[in-house]
Amino acid sequence: MRGAPERYLVTTLWSGADAHRRYAAERLPALRERAAPEDDVRVLSGHLLPLEPGWTVPPVRRRR
After folding, report:
1. What's phi and psi for 33, nearest 5 deg?
2. 20 in helix, strand or coil?
3. Which of 10, 12, 19, 49 is in the most buried spot, having the most CB atoms within 10 Å?
4. H or E element: which one contains 18?
5. pTM score of the predicted model
C-alpha cells in the first residue's frame, strides 16, 4: 500500500515469566545498546499474549 506505515511483528516464546524477566534484566539492556533502535524505530511496543495450547503444533517425529 502506498503511504502505509511499515509494521513488523516479532514473537518470542519463553518458558515462563521468570525466564523473560531474567532476559529483560540481564541481556536486553546490552542488546538495545548495540542495536540502537532509537536510530531507526519511531515506536516500539510490546504486549504479552497468552499461549493458546490448542493452537500449538507438535514437532514431527521421524521414524527410524
Report:
1. -65, -45
2. helix
3. 19
4. helix 17-26
5. 0.59
Number of H helices, E strands in the chain: 2, 0
**C-alpha–C-alpha distance, residues 51 and 64, integer Å:** 32
> CA dist 63 to 38, 60, Å?
48, 10
Tens of pLDDT, residues 26-38: 999 999 999 998 8
Number of residues that this document lists for the chain = 64
Return d(Cα 15, Cα 49) in angstroms, integer. 13
pLDDT at 56 over 60: yes
